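Forum > Structural Biology > Help requests

Title: Can anyone predict the 3D structure of beta-glucosidase?

Hi all, first post here. I have the sequence for beta-glucosidase but no way to get a structure on my laptop. I'd be grateful if someone could post the structure tokens.
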Amino acid sequence: MRPSDFAERDLDEVVEQLTTDEAILLTAGVGFWHTHAVPRLGIPAVKVSDGPNGIRGNHFFMSTPAKCLPSATGMAATFDTALMQRVGLELLAEEAKLMQAPVLLGPTCNTQRNPLGGRSFESFSEDPHLAGMMAAAYIKGLQSGGIGACIKHFLGNDKENDRFGYDSIMSERALREIYAMPFMLAQKYAQPWSFMTAYNRVNGTHVSENKHIIQDILRKEWASDATVMSDWFGVYSIDHSINAGLDLEMPGTNKWRTLDLMNRSVQSRKITKRTVKERARKVLGLVQKCAKGAPEILNGDGIERTGDIEQGRDLMTKFASQAIVLLKNEGDILPLKPKEQGLKKIAIVGGNAKAIVLSGGGSAALKPSFFTTPFDGIVQALGKIGSDVEITYSEGARAYMQMPTLENDIVTEDGRKGWIGTFHSHESDDSMVAIDKPLVTRYVDETRVFLSTDYPKELTKRFTLRLRGQLKPRDHDCKFEFGLISAGRAKLYVDGKLVIDNWTKQERGEAFFNSGSTEEYGTIDVKAGVSYSIYVEYANVRAPAPNDPDEAIMDANGGVRLGGAEVQHPDELMASAVKLAEEADAVIAVVGLNADWETEGYDRTTLALPGRTDELVRKVAAANKRTIVVTQSGSSITMPWADEVPVIVHAWYLGNATGDAIGEVLSGRVNPSGRLSLSFPKALEDVPSHGHFHTEHGAVRYGEDLFVGYKHYHHRNIEPQWHFGHGLSYTTFEYSDLSLTEPEVSNGEITLTASVKITNTGSVAGTDVVQLYLSYPTTSELTHPPLMLKAFAKVFDLAPGKSEVVKLALDKYAVSYWEDRISRWVVDPGVYVARVGRSSAPQALALSAEFKVAKRLEWNGL
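Reply #1:
Sure, ran it for you. Structure tokens for beta-glucosidase below:
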């Protein structure tokens, strides 16, 4: 019998044949990434893999190179559900098959409550309608390709600090209208095969134990048959989670749901055998969907593969370029046309110009099968338009939090990039003395070595990893600074001399999912043309730290990270960039954040760009009036220099095709059409949840209630730096002739259609996003946000002088709010105002029309 034959099995019969022990085993994972197999009954195991912007596969250490897509905020910035669906089918589903993973742990669909949230880049938007429609398109594309989606993190996981314990205290209206709505839309339009519960509590109860969320909302109201799995180590009980409806505990290491504990819970009547089998049946439902959707995976060899690098590259570049948002373009400096504009020399500056910045950090991170830097992409794009302009470069100001990794600076004796690692057992499980003879020798092409659980299982409980390589010769004398982080303990030796001791004692830090130390530094003098031997010794046991003598064994999150860079005086770096700016005809400053700043595991502390980045932008802009600033971040950043520069382009994190997409847009080969998927405030103090975003004795009070994102800025009459939905083009558009049909009410549904004519009034073809916002009746007894996005549509490649009539459909979701007293959705009678335009900015919503709902409507479900 082949594993895929399970597709045809009668699940009721299979469940009937399960022993209690087999049913128990099915309710928890095996290892880090698999469900449990029951060979006796022909039940195969199913592998899951991290997304949501690519398929990493099952390894953090030496993972299989893969395609990385834009961050979810970038995906949503396309406002293009059709393209999102195509990407889900042609890129994500195909990559999942290469990685032998029939379930993708994505999309992430949390609401962007505050841009400081460490995983904000992973979620689509601050707006629940945009987030929900993009999530539905993602899931439809993925699942039409036979790969199951696991939408996450259901719900209220909007920050990272204290994420296992904090309590998201919110009103039921906010829960329904803001935080559950994206998941609700995804369920209505796409039916994800699985849901992943959030780590946190909601209104007092952890979501993995929350009957209201899992049973009342997901199961009963939404009628979902999805498998509900926990986030990794997000289960905190046996009986509470089983009885609340959590079907699958993940992962299978250090789990609660062991045969012993589960059987004891049955015997003590904490749980029943019937309930255990109900949970097991839901897991089997997911297994069966996988067997039907991608039988070739279940029948396959389980080996992860990297696909053809060029296959899908055009689609990746298209998706990334459609995400880029042109925020400002005074004087039509963009697109760059060096010959027409008389540009002979362009200076490229900034800490992100040559850096490998493709994604935020944590579960979303992966090893790219290829990557184009912004610098290389811009140079290539200018070459494609026949430009022979001279390009100069200076970093100007450093942007990294941790020293850059050294994959391209350290080589093995035979010249391969990276180093050789040897794994050593210790004399006993309790000993710190390593046996000299290695158990395993391995080539390692990365200097961020996150072992997780990917170390040889034959090792003793405590083990040592020794890494040896050569620092490539440099063409000049310099000082070189190393940075060493360890989730465990580590030492760095250069030419046999101890340079960094992160072994004897250390400070606790936030790296490696909060298991690592802070970064320790050491400097050497480097002579031109000389190679230096690099040796790092790592042990998977923490060193003592002040106020924390715990020497815990790192059996899940162990790792070591070696970074480094030439020592350069910050003033000299800055001066070099300014000098190049003065000498150039135009400047492109590529600045922003990276995966150190935006990552799973901890929240940001500021919206400011790192280090002296803001100073760099101001100084090069003062030195050259033709300065183009390209920003990279997955969430909002402040731009105190916004009024001092003529051009600003926001590029998010764009994945492998980062440089290709940026080059295409700056050179005019692509006319930008991205729109901001979240508001960019002028200051942190303007953010809706400012002052009550952080946990206070475990409580996070959602005091802004319904007024999240742009709804807050309108409600408080606060002008953000950039409005939600904002984005410019290299052409101009005019809107006219807005009209609305009369609402039709039938079988508990409301439907009406808005029509608007859009005309390209510029000189080049362009693509625009039409956005419709509603205002609810002023006669309502309740407070509602003044504007809410309820529909959007994209007009593609509209030629100069041409017009197109766009139709936007509205339904009961557009006009409903949650009524706490009766636990139902309600549509109030009264006059509704529809506003249409190119962003949520009041000045961009010049067209408005009214429609009237005659009678009150109540509904529940989907």
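The first strand starts at residue 48 and ends at 50. The chain has four domains: 3-296, 313-399+569-716, 410-566, 733-859.
Shout if anything looks off.
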